[in-house]
Design goal:
1294 residues, alpha+beta, six-stranded mixed beta sheet
């Protein structure tokens, strides 16, 4: 697609953000191709104004610069295949090259500073001209195209060549360097001589020509004149049009509004197009059917799904009214200029017009700033309505790069998109070594493999995300979710045919590769600074997810993978892998030994997997031939297109595709591939651990030298032999070696040779996101965590208009996880005071922003006001929760070696290094932990049948009650279950009634104390025993039945029914699995068993009878086989942590004023008190409650005032202002009327009292009272900033 002429606009924006916003949001500028900007505005975060329709290019000086004074914006419409940025070593010059088949245009945005008076040598333009000349010279080396040069910008020089006739000799002399440069390069001015481009407002009426557009090819220029608008700048914008046809990118397909799709029509249309299913026996026929399904679905989606409404070019806050104001300001400017020309600048009419124009322009720029800020506040105010996480995306700075720069490969510089694409492919898919794997002589007995079932696919589809980016079929997963009810038969047949033929359809082996920058890389001119993301066709991904689930089941239930592999497996985490390593280190140190660890980096990883080697690994681990044959097809003959910027290659075959990144099947296949490598059990002499492709090996010995000798003689040959056998390759330059010991003489001992490269010991090594130092002091890791968390905290400041509760949520979900990651590895909850002091700064900074509090408020006060746990208690809470969860894992899980040793180690005393896991266990009750339930992470058979004919969970109580009555009349057997509590104990019961509402069968169960059991679990236990009641009744009915009978269990707990419906690996798993097993047995016995929700307390005799029996069973004791719940243990841990927090707060000396206001802290109602307050109101409330405010009593304490007197003569305190000050008598009457009796206590006024029945906090009355007090505080104007001139404002009300 070719465009006719290249349209360029040049303007000095004079550092004004509103002017730049007006320019870039103007509908008329969207038709331009290039904007050349000088003196751009810059934000607080050192970023420039940007827009989704433009690519931004900054100057490229070799050394850093504090500020860039020129930018280039290229319209996204111009393809990156016809333009790119070129290097120009100067901070005030940006350059791009635009080309066609036979010509290239070098385009420069130039800013030359003016010559300061008295120091003419201080602003020499020579460095800028040299940089431009070097860039031109470098570009001319490309002899394939003729080169044209265009320079446009603010040159700040005066000369008769382009200006008028009345120029001072001094100014002509200052322009001599520019004249010399223009003549040397044959550059001619494009604007008519004498065209005024600058009207100085500081010297009204004076104009000059300092903005220029010059070129060495005037024949290419079609037109050049002043633009109709200057966007409020003192400079006039210059528009130029050139006879150059730049290639434009093809139009993108409109996005679909799937929320408005007519899914029933789509499903029916696809079924009509596909027709009845015919058996498929060949691979081409399968490809044809898949293609037919995709095409039919795409056609139906296009037909019955509307397009997303196009978004306006300008941002939503840039309203038409702002454009009207801009037009009026321009009209006044032109009138003033005409008056100056006709009457002179000193004429009274010119002076009046000048003042009017100035006022109009200021009002316009302020309106732009106000509109943008108001829109941002409104957006953040709505964040609580589902937009909070969208707002969080603005915490990270946007990518500032315009397009992928020239790539350096060896000595070559690659500038063309085709060359870059090939470089990326070579980097992402390196040529691998040929494996020398010999096939096994014997094949072990294969595991069974069943046909794929409808339920199996449905479970995988339900678990898949609906909005992930689609492959080249452009069908997101949500399409298949919506069409499943129509297409489940066709999809199941296709999947089974694919497995039977051992063939993955070719359409599903095509990938759209998207190139992304790796964050934080110093040089993005090397392909290794980027990573690929493969977008695959979603229906193919669904089949891959089904196979992945099957392999996961076989792996975990038949022990196919070594215990040292922690990645891609259920119930295993990076933290567990690190705890196993830390346990080995602690055990070695306890015996005064040294640990030497080597971390290996596998080149290519997923992309480097050889298919023959993978098949050999799968065969050795008993994976059936039908699956291996299909996996071979999945890995072979893969095609991909690679895309970056607006460029994408055609589909091409990948020579070394390996495993598709982005496929749900790839992680588990890779764990099979490297299973022989990582299969090194942890012993007293050493061990290994892996998380998918991250692999590290350690040795334990008396010295580092002894460890190195073993690694070099035994481990390195073994690892290199594995690499040769599988065709893999390790990156020796990324191999890390570290000696872990407190013996400093051992730290730098020896070295290793890997692939001919010498690896020397390092003082630190990063393993699975945690930085290990030689002495395990963790200083480096904590500092890195603080650095990362600080970046996020600073970004939070950009969301300062969010309400306190929203800010709190973002802090706890975006900041604390960065700090807390794997804390059981590096944090000792009993001794770690140094690190806590540093970590506390992160929390303090965030809480000040959350509450809009003064910076003088104590951290402990901030924590109770925001109801955020202190850092040390948060880390202790996390450690205890993690330990409790680890204790629910099966005893054959590899983490138990560390857990059992930590339980013994917790009782040890001595001066040796501490084991953080053991130290954390000192704060817990081990007996309680050992009694906990086991939550088995091993998956259930994916192909299992449903244990229940139906699980009906209604939403309407009245309808559900009617259905329950209908069920009672139509089911052969009806059993009611319920749970109840009494005196801190729980009971459950199941009961069956006859037609006369008399109990014919019942069972009561004592569940146990509420401290170990929940009502939810009791309801599940009730369902379990209800099934046993069904069993008893079923045996009586089956003797005389001549058909399949129906039994229904009616339960009044929706959550219990939902837990049975979607069984997961979480607390209560054993009960749910027992229910499923019992349900399957009833089904096998000939009963169709249903579960149905019945509303509780709706006068249903069966439900009432079950409730009555359950209440009777709620007594001390336990009459069921299940173990105490993890959820209740977590609640117990939480209560203890908060109890400790309460004790610490009561013993603290901080927050004296707050204690007087509210003596029940810490309490969750303070969180609700601040929750939805606007920032300015939260600012008032913190002043009132903390005592840190702008009243004279506090200002005197901090040295801002000489006395503490109110204007009325009394001491100015919070109590005085609220209750006593006679100057506030009138607003106080309104306050009394609003709050009533609460006025009698300052504590009640500020939300500190307990109101409502039975002493429970009444949130509504408390909020109403506080609102009235805040209204009064605003009216009083006593809490506004009164910082002395030149002193910092300690408030954060903004």
């Amino acid at each position: 697609m070719l465009e006719t002429n290249l349209r360029i606009l040049q303007l000095n924006i004079m550092k004004s953000g509103p002017r730049m916003e007006a320019l870039i949001n103007d509908h008329q500028t969207q038709n331009l191709d290039v904007l050349l900007i000088q003196e751009p505005s810059i934000t607080t975060y050192q970023t420039h104004v940007n827009h989704s329709a433009w690519r931004l290019y900054r100057p490229t000086p070799e050394t850093g610069a504090d500020r860039f004074r020129s930018l280039i914006y290229v319209n996204q419409r111009i393809s990156t295949s016809s333009h790119r940025q070129i290097l120009c070593n100067h901070p005030d010059i940006a350059a791009v090259k635009i080309w066609t088949a036979d010509t290239q245009l070098l385009l420069f945005s130039v800013y030359i500073p003016s010559v300061p008076l008295g120091t003419p040598d201080g602003a020499s333009p020579e460095p800028a001209f040299t940089a431009i000349q070097n860039t031109i010279t470098a570009a001319l080396r490309d002899g394939r195209r003729s080169a044209s040069v265009v320079l446009a910008g603010d040159f700040n020089r005066h000369h008769p060549t382009w200006g008028g006739n009345h120029i001072q000799p001094r100014l002509i002399e200052e322009a001599s360097d520019l004249i010399t440069f223009l003549q040397a390069n044959g550059l001619h001015s494009c604007l008519p001589r004498g065209t005024a481009t600058y009207w100085a407002l500081n010297d009204p009426g004076r104009n000059s020509t300092i903005d220029q557009t010059v070129t060495n090819r005037p024949d290419l220029l079609i037109k050049c004149h002043l633009f109709h608008d200057n966007y409020g700048s003192d400079h006039r914008a210059t528009y130029s049009e050139w006879n150059l046809q730049a290639q434009c990118r093809p139009a993108t397909k409109a996005r679909k509004a799937f929320d408005r799709a007519e899914w029933n029509k789509i499903g029916e249309e696809v079924l009509r197009q596909i027709g009845p299913w015919k058996e498929i026996k060949t691979r081409p026929a399968l490809d044809e059917m898949v293609q037919k399904l995709i095409e039919a679905t795409n056609a139906a989606v296009d037909r019955y799904t509307p397009d997303v409404r196009p978004t306006p070019y300008s941002k939503r806050w840039f309203t038409p009214d702002l454009k009207v104001q801009q037009t009026k300001a321009n009209q006044l400017r032109r009138k003033w200029q005409e008056s100056c020309a006709q009457l002179g600048r000193e004429h009274s009419s010119s002076i009046i017009l000048f003042r009017e124009m100035q006022e109009k322009r200021r009002a316009w720029t302020r309106a732009i700033e106000k509109a943008k800020a108001s829109h941002w506040r409104q957006f953040l105010d709505e964040a609580g309505e589902g937009k909070l996480w969208k707002a969080a995306t603005y915490m990270k700075p946007r990518d500032a790069w315009g397009c992928t720069p020239a790539l350096k490969v060896g000595t070559n510089e690659l500038t063309g998109n085709e060359e870059k694409a090939q470089a990326f492919l070579d980097s992402f898919f390196p040529e691998m070594n040929t494996p020398c794997d010999s096939l096994p002589t014997s094949t072990p007995l294969e595991l069974p493999w069943q046909p794929i079932t409808v339920l199996e696919i449905q479970r995988s589809l339900k678990a898949a995300k609906g909005t992930t980016a689609p492959g080249d079929d452009n069908l997101p997963m949500l399409v298949w979710k919506q069409l499943w009810v129509y297409l489940k038969g066709i999809i199941t047949n296709i999947f089974n045919t694919s497995m039977t033929l051992g063939y993955h359809p070719k359409q599903w082996r095509n990938a759209k590769i998207v190139v992304l920058r790796k964050p934080g890389k110093p040089d993005y001119s090397v392909p290794g600074a980027y990573r690929p993301i493969s977008l695959l066709n979603t229906l193919g991904k669904l089949l891959e997810a089904v196979v992945a689930r099957r392999l996961s089941y076989l792996t975990e239930n038949h022990g196919l993978l070594p215990d040292t592999q922690f990645g891609g497996r259920p119930g295993r985490t990076t933290e567990q892998a690190l705890l196993v390593l830390l346990n080995a280190i602690d055990r070695a140190w306890y015996k005064n030994k040294v640990v030497t660890l080597v971390s290996f980096d596998l080149k290519g990883a997923f992309n480097g997997v050889n298919q023959a080697s993978l098949d050999s690994c799968l065969r050795a681990r008993r994976i059936p031939a039908v699956a291996r044959k299909w996996i071979a097809s999945f890995t072979n003959d893969r095609y991909a297109s690679i895309g970056f910027d607006d460029f994408r290659t055609e589909l091409a075959r990948l020579a070394d595709a390996g495993l598709a990144q982005g496929s749900p099947l790839s992680p588990i296949l890779f764990t099979f591939f490297n299973s022989d490598l990582v299969d090194q059990p942890v012993t007293f002499q050493g061990g290994a651990s892996a998380f998918i492709d991250d692999y590290f090996r350690w040795r334990v010995g008396r010295s580092a030298e002894e460890n190195l000798a073993k690694i070099q003689s035994e481990d390195i040959p073994r690892i290199e032999a594995w690499a040769r056998r599988t065709g893999s390759c390790f990156a020796a330059e990324k191999t890390e070696l570290i000696h872990l010991t407190r013996k400093r003489g051992e730290h730098l001992q020896g070295n290793l040779v890997v692939n001919g490269t010498t690896v020397t010991p390092s003082p630190k090594a990063k393993l699975l996101g945690v930085i290990f130092d030689q002495e395990l002091r963790w200083k480096e890791h904590v500092q890195q965590a603080i650095k990362r968390a600080t970046k996020v905290t600073i970004a939070l400041n950009g969301l300062r208009h969010l309400r306190p509760e929203q800010m709190r949520q973002l802090y706890q979900t975006c900041v604390t996880p960065v700090v807390d990651y794997a804390s059981t590895v590096w944090h000792d909850p009993l001794r770690d005071k140094t690190h806590l002091r540093q970590l506390n700064t992160i929390q303090r900074t965030s809480l000040i922003r959350i509450l809009s509090a003064f910076r003088t408020v104590a951290t402990t006060t901030l924590e109770v006001e925001a109801h955020v746990l202190p850092t040390h208690l948060r880390l202790r809470h996390r450690a205890q929760r993690t330990i409790a969860s680890l204790h629910t894992l099966p005893r054959d899980h590899p983490i138990w070696s560390a857990l059992s040793r930590a339980q013994k180690r917790r009782n040890n005393v001595g001066s040796y290094a501490r084991f953080p896991l053991a130290e954390a266990m000192k704060t817990m009750n081990i007996d309680r932990l050992n009694e906990l339930e086991i939550i088995d992470p091993r998956p259930l058979p994916p192909w299992r049948l449903d244990s229940f004919a139906e699980i009906e969970i209604g939403s309407d109580r009245e309808t559900a009650a009617q259905k329950a009555e209908t069920t009672r009349l139509t089911s052969d057997v009806v059993v009611y279950s319920d749970a109840s509590g009494r005196q801190d104990h729980l009971g459950t019961a199941a009961v069956a009634l006859d037609n006369n509402q008399e109990i014919v069968e019942a069972q009561q169960v004592q569940v146990g104390p509420m401290s170990r059991w929940s009502v939810h679990a009791a309801e599940l236990i009730g369902i379990f025993y209800a099934i046993s009641v069904v069993f008893k009744i079923a045996h009586q009915h089956l003797r005389t039945a001549d058909r399949q009978l129906t039994a229904t269990i009616l339960c009044d707990s929706r959550s219990a029914l939902q837990a049975v419906q979607s069984a997961r690996n979480r607390s209560g798993q054993r009960i749910v699995h027992a229910i499923l097993q019992a349900g399957a047995e009833v089904l096998a016995a000939g009963f169709a068993l249903r579960l149905q929700w019945v509303p509780g307390h709706c006068d249903n005799p069966g439900n009432d009878a079950a409730d009555r029996l359950a209440k009777d069973a709620a007594s001390p004791g336990k009459t069921h086989p299940f173990c105490p719940l993890l959820t209740r243990e977590r609640a117990f841990i939480r209560r203890n942590i908060y109890s400790q927090w309460e004790q610490e707060w009561k013993s603290s000396t901080k927050g004296g004023h707050l204690r007087k206001i509210d003596n029940t802290l810490p309490a969750s109602y303070t969180r609700r008190l601040y929750g939805n307050l606007p920032r300015n109101r939260a600012y008032l409330l913190t002043q009132l409650r903390t005592g840190h405010n702008w009243l004279s009593s506090y200002r005197k304490n901090v040295g801002y005032s000489d006395d503490d007197q109110c204007a009325c003569g009394a001491q100015e305190t919070v109590t005085h202002v609220l209750v006593d000050c006679p100057n506030l008598r009138e607003p106080r009457r309104e306050l009394r009327r609003e709050v009533g009796d609460a006025f009698n206590s300052v504590s009640s006024l500020l939300g500190g009292s307990k109101q409502g029945e039975k002493g429970k906090p009444d949130t509504v009355s408390r909020a109403r009272t506080v609102k009235a007090v805040l209204d009064f505080a605003e009216t009083s104007q006593r809490f506004r900033s009164r910082a002395p001139p030149g002193q910092p404002n300690n408030g954060n009300g903004s």
